[in-house]
Structures are given as structure tokens and as C-alpha cells.
Sequence to fold (696 residues):
Amino acid sequence: MANIKELAARQEQLTGGHRLCAGCGASIAVRQVLMATEYPVVVACATGCLEVSTTIYPYTAWRPSFIHSAFENSAATISGVEAAYQALRRKGQLDQEYRFVAFGGDGGTYDIGLQALSGAAERGHKMVYVCYDNGAYMNTGIQRSSATPFGAWTSTTPVGSERAGKMQTRKDLTSIMAAHNIPYVAQAAVSNWNDLIKKAEKAFEADGPAFLNVLAPCPRGWRYPSSETIQMAKLAVQTGFWPLFEVENGTWRVTSKVKERRPIRDFLEPQGRFKHMFNDEQALAAAQQWADSQWDRLHAMVE
Amino acid sequence: MAKTVAITGNVACAHAMRQIDPDVVAAYPITPQTTIVEEFSNFVAKGQVETEYVTVESEHSAMSACIGASAAGSRVMTTTSSQGLALMWEMLYIAAGLRLPIVMHNVNRTLSAPINIHCDHSDSMGARDAGWIQLFSEDAQEAYDNTIQAIRIAEHPDVHLPVMVLLDGFIISHAIARLDLLEDDQVKEFVGAYQPGYHLLDPQHQATMGAFDGLHGNYFEFKRAQVEAIRNSKQVTIDVGKEFGAMSGRSYGLFELYEMDDAEVAVIVMGSTAGTTRAVVKELRADGVKAGMIKLRAFRPFPAPELAAAVRDMKAVAVLDRAESVGADAGPAYLEVRNALYDSERRPAIINYIYGLGGRDVGLELIRDVYSDLADLAGGKSVEAVSYLGLRE
Fold:
């Protein structure tokens, strides 16, 4: 992998001037992922914060070619672009080599876009799909998704006398994608840039589809100061809320290097969305239990 | 030299696709379209096309992949029916709004519920406002011919819009018909090489497509430009139809006039029922009745002034709709034709028949009934404005 000096010298593919919030994890994820290849890329993007904030007509923050068509279909859209590329290359109408990447939030990936993603992965398009997971529908105002953690307040899982936050645990999308037996699947976080860029490099050079699930904290939805995005991602990794791992040609490997896992409350406490849980020991215990079982399951896959 | 064959409408459509040899096809099987994708798969398997064939997991992804592929500067085709078209609905508008010249067959089948696999036009009528050009076919020959012409119409620089080629499910798609296939080289030359505008795979010029219009508000102007483009497609459709005629001996326009020179009554109809109607007109003509038929080929753009001019001197006209616009108390084609006549100083009496829903058979007898009603109407008798043909009541 290129060292940090070399990476810094690479041209930014997502330019400044876009309208994403200060402290947005999504733009950090995009910039790190796109640093990982020197080939020209074509980007597809699902409807969401990233899309609406970076392509406000007549401006664009994207240096590479970019397409947005709808919400649930960025994987299908990029698969069409890649198919055109294969056809034009085969017919000798295009010399330039490209890489293809689709970005979607967790709503556009875990929920409404899961079918299109699964289909594109199964068909074996040479493409990288990146989910920037901020754990809710942030673009429409913080509604719960299947990536929203247990207990979290969202605008559709409010805190009341009968219910307090999301009642269900998160969907394990990274494992679902690993079950597609595609060449490369990894979970990464914007805090661990070295790890993320290495994984993105592997994803771009995989011989087939690759999937990256990148934790991208959201100050608005998680209710923390916008200067703390990287710290939130670090806590997610250190508490085992978001273990870093990869599945390379079927082999699982943990890349987190967490010496001593911290309790899940260290991740929950600084975020306003979990505030109500600190009056409810049972809820906190359930959150810890979920983190423990996820950690054990992952380590069982590695052994 | 053309080759005369006996094949189904679907196989004819698959042959048109083979001869066009598009860069990308992304399609999903659905009754009654399935044999198009099966036949095309055979061409792919045998290396008879160079197409990248994307076997998607749904029609929504079919149209999404077509949008990606077309935006990448390649020539793209797909094919669907009924529920598949309905599942694509969101993406139909996006394909048209992004001005992507995708060509698609829709093998007309009704929409659920109740689930029914047979022919009517309710699927494509539901998509009539999506911004696609819609061309109906009377038989397998026309479905084949329309497919080839659709490429030229869609990709014309004054148009740059997607085209839906419509053929009646089972009646055309599965019946074996005699038709003439053009030579592969003729088709190749006729469609020519695709010259895309801005696209995603131009190494010299990066493009952002599908940008967000939320703050500055140009949506209205983009839609107005789309309207201009589909208006332009009228002349392009006529020109391409003439050029196709010079090559094949079969010319096409926005609609076909049959026995209309001195006709006093006429039926306006789309799809395979035009064949049935033609047979009835022949009988009536033999009996000395001044009956005619207008077979509508282009439903979008709707040739309103042209149709108004074609019927201005007639006494009575019946519009046959193989779709119901539930709640409008009339069929969609009737409403369009009636609207087209509003400003005419001279116009015929006009009635509407809803027919053939869910594949209900329409034989000569029912069409004779229509002309009999038209004779009554022309003679000054009162006839119900909208009625159901072949309904069990």
C-alpha cells in the first residue's frame, strides 16, 4: 500500500464545496476509498445524503464520472455501467481501463437496496460496493433502518412510556455479503484509515465483486459534537460494536487489533441517541450481550 | 434479400435483437415475454451476438442496469411484460428523464389482480406518461419491423428518448406467423453505429449524470425539453418509417389508414385487433358499406392533430380500448381521440368500446357489432357513448 505521503499527493476525487455536514463520516469514507486506486473510476450512488449533497445541479463535487438513478438500485446501475464497459472493451471501442464503485447508505443497502446488491454480487460484476453505514435514514431525518443499533432513538423509534428506542438488533449485512462467496468482503471504519484504504485496495483489485461496509458516524443522527466523528468510530471498534475484519476468498480475518475490548457503554454514552438507556440497566445489559455474542461469532469464523 | 420464415412474434423480436446486436441487454423473464429472453440467450450462447447479456434478478434491476449501461455510452435493449413493466415504473421515468435511448419490447399483458397472463394494454397504458415513445404492432412482422426502427428513432439526436415496442401477448407473441426477416447486413447498416452524447466512459470528459435538482430548480425546464424531444420524434418516426419502407417494401407512419378515402364510419384500434377489424372492413366493403379503419401505431407521442384531420369528414367513429381507465368511465385512447377533436370545426360522432380485458377473445362478430352501431350512429340513432364489448352481463 502507498504510504501516507504518497496518498496525500493523490488528487482528491471528491472535491471540497459539497454540502455534507461538518463531521460527516460519509465524505471521509468516500475520500479514503477513492484514494485506494489509481485507475479512473465510475461512481454510482444511491439516493441519500451523499448524493443530494455532492451533485447539486449545475455543480458536482465529483471528479470521476458519476451516476445517480434512484434509491434502491446503485448496485444494479453500476452493474449496467460495468456491462457496457465489458462490451465496449470486447468490441475494441474502449482502451482505457476503469474501476467501478457504488456507494449507498445503510438504508439504500441493508434495506431497500439489498435485492439489487445481492443480485449484482451473485452475477459477478467486477465492481466495489461501499455501504457507508451511519445506522439510520439520515437524509430524510433519522428514521430507523435495519442497521440501526438496538436501543437507539430515531424519529421512527422514539422514546416513550411503552417503547424506548429500537426494539431489534442490527442486521449483520457484512456476513450476508460474505455468504455470497464473492472474492472480497470487509468491514472497516473511517477512524482506521490505514486499514480502510488497504481493504479498498484489495476490493478494487479483486477478481470479481467486492463489498465494503464502512462505519460512517453521523453527528446529527447520533447526537454528538461534529468534532467527534473519528472518536465515535474508534469507540465503535474498541467496544466491539463494529469489529474490523475481512473475508478474502472465503478466509475470515479480524483486523481490529483490539487488545482489551471496552464495555459497550463507552460507545453508547457519548451519543444522545442512547441517552434514555442509561436509566435502564436491562437495556444496557442487552446491548452488552449483543456485542459479546457478535464478537464471539466473528472469532468463531476466524478459528 | 429478405428471408420468409414462419416463427412466433417473440422469436421475431429476438431475431431483431440479434441483428441489431446491442452492446448490452439486461432482462428478466416474465410470461408472455419469456421466449424472447430464451431465444436471445441462445444467440448469446452460440456467439451469434457480441452483446453483454445481464441476467438480472428483477425488472427493477433490469431497467436500472439498462440505465447504467446506456449512460455509459452503449446501445441497450431490454424486454418485459405486465407486472415486470409495473415493477420498472419508477425507472421508466428516470430512463426518459436522463434522455437515454433504450429500446424495450413490452409484450402486452394485463395487470393483476386477479392474476391473469393474457393480453390487454393496461400495462403499457399505465406507463403512457413516463416519457417513452410507444409504438404498437399489429402482428409479428410489425413487431420485428418496429424493433429495428425503434433504434433509429430513439437514438436520433433530435429525440434521444427511450422507445417501447408493444406487441399483444400470446396473440402475437406466441402465434406462429409468416414474416420476412431482413438480411443481417441490411439491419446492421440501417441501425448504424450508436453515437452517444455525454457519457460515463469517455476518458477525456467526466460526466455527472442524475444530479440533484433540489435547490436551484431546473426540473420544469428539463421536462419541457423532454416534451420538445417527443414532439420531434413524430417527424423522425415518419422519416425512419419511409426509409425502412424503401429498404423493405413496408413503410410506416404514425398511424395507418385502411379504406379511409371515402369512408363514412371508422374504427380506431391498436394492436392485433386491427387485423380482425381489417377483415370486417373487407366484408363490409364487399357489401358496399363505406367503412374504414385507422390503426394507431404511435400512442406516444399521440398524433392528435393528424388524427383529427383524418376523421374530420366522417359521420361516426368508434375507438377500441383494450384497457380501462378505472374511474374515468372511458378508455384511454378514446379520451385522447375525443380531446383531439375538440377544436375541429367538423368532427364525427364518437363512441368508445372497452374490449378484450384479461385476454377476452374478440372475434369478427363483435367487430361487426361495432360497425353496426356506427351505422346506427351515422344514421342519427342514439348509441351509448362508452360500452363493453364481449363482457358477460
